[in-house]
From TrEMBL:
Aminotransferase class V domain location: 87-331
Protein name: phosphoserine transaminase
Highest taxon of the lineage: Bacteria
Species of the source: Acidimicrobium ferrooxidans (strain DSM 10331 / JCM 15462 / NBRC 103882 / ICP)
Keyword tags: Amino-acid biosynthesis, Aminotransferase, Cytoplasm, Pyridoxal phosphate, Pyridoxine biosynthesis, Serine biosynthesis, Transferase
Cofactors named for this entry: pyridoxal 5'-phosphate
EC supergroup of this enzyme: transferase
Any Pfam family: Aminotran_5
Length: 382
């Protein structure tokens, strides 16, 4: 592989911010400056006192507005991220049997959690190859349908639609929430972590729950099922109604998330955020569709994510070398998902990423490809 440090991009091809990771995503420097400006008034204060509880309330109210939460829907929060929410749902939401759509790394993991949970039946798992998506199907034995709105590992996005009126619909929206439009009436638990479109840090789960989901949580908790306190969504719900979490949250994560929620609302809400991300992702899809050596990994345009763009390259381009050169020039985290094992780049286009930065990245990729090709054609000396 060529020496990545020896290839220097012209300054006019450098984005204003070189962070294009799919998570943790870029945090606007102005948000970090605002956090620092709080001084001693926020960080290091009790999460049970009005200052932090007011911050939690602001997050809850902002999300309810952003998602157009229907009457009776509630926002809960808890430590551990969306990964912990899978465990919590296995104990607090699924009664007996769930159906899962598995079409990538993260959509498959929830199914694995359920399969290993002793008090639940074997899950009904509908699979599809990476780069495509399966369809949910009504099953009278299923009481919970687990969907994924955006598969972060592959760049596939799906429409959130209730498969059956007889079961709860749980939607993993970690890389979709705050950037992709959805109909909240189609979901009962819309859950995510804030380190993607919400330009914050990880370690927190947030979920919007329907009245049906709340009734299920309360009923399972009353049934006598043994539920660890940290996996009890009833405990999370009771604390959320007090504008707090069960145990101490990362306050900086809440502060940064609250700022980004406000920024998304100023952008035009969920529709405006979706349009911003779509404009940015379209720059890359249009480029790859006509490129001599690149192509969108997701073949069906209807499934192409507006926030996670995956681009395949033919054998004439070494995507690993390409990413290494970009990284040496300060353009980072565009490598493909490690377990996918493809000759590709994966580029995040969350709402906090300006379209102009994506345009510069596109041009930088072309410039580096040309330089790598020149190096490959150059005569080798002993």
């Amino acid at each position: 592989m060529p020496d990545a440090d020896a290839i220097r991009l012209p300054s006019n091809l450098l984005p204003s911010d070189g962070r294009f990771g799919s998570g943790p995503s870029r945090i606007p420097p102005s948000h970090l400056e605002a956090l620092a400006a709080t001084g001693t008034t926020l960080m290091g204060t009790s999460h049970r006192r009005p200052t932090v509880r007011g911050l939690v309330a602001s997050v809850q109210e902002g999300l309810a507005e952003l998602f157009s939460a229907p009457e009776g829907y509630e926002i809960i929060l808890g430590n551990g991220g969306a990964t912990l929410f899978w465990d919590a749902a296995a104990y607090s939401m699924i009664e007996h049997k769930s159906q899962h759509l598995a079409f990538g790394e993260f959509s498959s993991k929830f199914a694995s959690v359920v399969a290993a949970t002793p008090h639940l039946d074997e899950p009904d798992v509908r699979r599809a190859e990476a780069g495509s998506a399966p369809a949910a199907e009504p099953n009278p034995a299923v009481d919970t349908y687990a969907l994924t709105q955006n598969e972060t590992s592959t760049g596939v996005t799906t429409q959130v639609t209730r498969p059956s009126e007889d079961g709860l619909v749980l939607v993993d929206a970690t890389s979709a929430a705050g950037a992709i439009v959805f109909d909240p009436s189609q979901v009962d638990a819309y859950y995510f972590s804030p380190q993607k479109a919400f330009a914050s840090d990880g370690g927190l789960f947030v979920a919007m729950l329907s009245p049906r989901a709340i009734e299920r949580i309360e009923r399972i908790a009353a049934s006598g099922r043994a539920i660890p306190a940290t996996l009890s969504l009833l405990t999370a719900l009771e604390n959320a109604r007090l504008n707090q979490t069960y145990n101490t949250p990362a306050i900086a994560t809440l502060f940064l998330m609250d700022l980004q929620i406000k920024a998304l609302l100023e952008l035009g809400g969920l529709k405006g955020a979706n349009e911003r991300s779509r404009q940015a992702s379209d720059v890359l899809y249009a480029w790859a569709t006509t490129h001599a050596h690149a192509t969108p990994f997701v073949a069906d345009p209807a499934l192409r994510s507006p926030v996670t763009v995956t681009i395949d390259f033919d054998d004439t381009v070494d995507a690993k070398a390409l990413a290494a050169v970009l990284r040496s020039n300060g353009i980072v985290d565009v490598e493909p998902y490690r377990k996918l094992g493809r000759n590709q780049l994966r580029i995040a286009t969350f709402p906090a990423t300006p379209v102009a930065d994506v345009e510069r990245l596109r041009d930088a990729i072309d410039w580096v490809i040309e330089r790598l090709a020149d190096d490959a054609r150059a005569p080798q000396t002993a």
